[in-house]
């Protein structure tokens, strides 16, 4: 049966955060009714788009960098086995230990066992999409180990017992006063006079985590890049919580998706220009840490690298869809997406929201487990233009729609929903028409196609009158 | 069958019949004019670092002007740069480093275009921990360490060393995507740019 073991496999069910509880249109329904959420998202994405646009315009060779980034990633995928083995060899030579995890269950078991062996009952974590994807925190908690998220936004999500809704800023759906309320409610030892001034909120997080950083012996991180040629790993961050986690503890465990390997040290010259400008709209993010195995006398003296498949090989097997593995998780595609701006990240059900989530999640799980996501887009193409590694998300969406196990009528419904959500005037017209239709007792018939199908499926989100007016006026 | 074999087997199966991809074309900027120190200063200031132009023999005095408190220094820092009472890192415990007011180091490379300073843990920069815990980081930069661009910096650096790329003080964009300075790393970054 070894031939079966060698077949590309999707991420297993029953573990991790790649599948939502309900299909996109229904989840979006809830989000669309939340005016505060939409205002927070709109404010945040408008800010970041402007910042990012300004610093990208400073580089005369942005398009050439994008092309190089895309070509490097295509090259990586085409010789992934060779690069992974080289990375493993280099990390091992430099005193690190490399582990291979075929799926979320195996990765969680490896990390839990590594932490157990240190005797630590608490670990500090720097924000990592891979560990969110596999639900590592839940696995650690089940084993009696307390994971402490140290990224400010992750901390807000963790203290608020909430779910992340954005790749880069998991608490993007919260504004400053909501964050203050969460801190006042759930942060031990917080100053009861805390204001909602952002520097005051940041200072509260600094005070709260300082002692934890200094007294925790094990850290868990992800990695933005793993360099095959040298065995070097890189973590790009802002706050310094990454530096704390990567420097202070005795043991560091890094969980990295297999697609994050890059061939050569020189390749960083491309990605270190693309990522910060596309992501936070900075010329460079405040801190990037790079380390190669173990450095005696400096930083963690035990280093483990866990290489994670969890469905990536299945994505790789699809010639059209595999470019989703080029993603450097900058979140630019979320910030420009008209559908994301209205629904927020939770509606996508997976830790990967927005346009990249709509193509990555269904491929990682198999389309049947995320069948509505390929329709969560109006195919406007803004994501493709924004992507620093030129992932053609609209083409992958169309490709996946053809694989989705939906009756044709339902497909039309969801396409229409996404189309209208990205065009508020149309949406408003649909909503008004739907109301008239309901009054007339002729549900759906009053709408022109393709919106008629949407109403017929009773998926038309009802937006409270007041919020709708706000929305209309704000356009 | 080990998990490594399983994963590599899956990947090889997934790649069957994959055509060789196009070669990587690197037609982005790879050669640059000499670094513009004014641009570096502009970019550092834009990200809330404080820049001081000082003569090489005035480093210690400048440091004393920034802080009168305890200054941790790496073991290989030039003696002439150290302010009176400097605390050399001979394996200091983390709480002693955290209790210091500032840390003074040299740097490996700086990038003008992005306002970035890179430390490579050489003896004049020290262990990574010493530049992380104090609230004030003072970096001495020689003009010949400044390059124009990221590709030049990558070419100068040795990946075998632990590297820390620093662009301004610790900051976050996590609250409404606005940049706020000062979270876990040093909240104040001073750059002493030596005169040529
Ligand atoms: S798909 Fe492109 S734009 Fe979206 S997060 Fe990934 S790299 Fe960024």
What would you note in describing this structure?
Chain A: It comes from Actinoplanes siamensis. The complex is a heterodimer of chains A (475) and B (196). Chain A contains 23 helices and ten strands. Chain A has 475 residues and is α/β, with parallel strands linked by helices. Among the domains of chain A are: 233 residues, 3-Layer(aba) Sandwich (Rossmann fold); 67 residues, no CATH class. The radius of gyration of chain A is 23 Å and the shape is globular. Chain B is an alpha/beta fold and 196 residues long. Chain B has five helices and twelve strands. In chain B, strand 5 and strand 6 form a beta hairpin. Chain B is globular, with a radius of gyration of 21 Å. At the A-B interface, helix 3, helix 4, helix 5, strand 1 and helix 9 of A face helix 1, helix 4, helix 5, strand 9 and strand 10 of B. The complex binds iron/sulfur cluster (SF4). The site of iron/sulfur cluster has 13 residues of chain A, from helix 15.
Assigned CATH superfamily of the domain at 80-312 in chain A: NagB/RpiA/CoA transferase-like
Gyration radius of chain B (Cα, Å) is 21 Å
Task: Note the beta-strand portion of chain A.
Answer: 5-15%
Q: Label the CATH architecture of the domain at 80-312 in chain A.
A: 3-Layer(aba) Sandwich
Domain Lactate utilization protein B C-terminal (chain A): 402-475
GO molecular function, one term (chain A): 4 iron, 4 sulfur cluster binding
Keywords (chain A): 4Fe-4S, Electron transport, Iron, Iron-sulfur, Metal-binding, Repeat, Transport
Protein name (chain A): Iron-sulfur cluster-binding protein
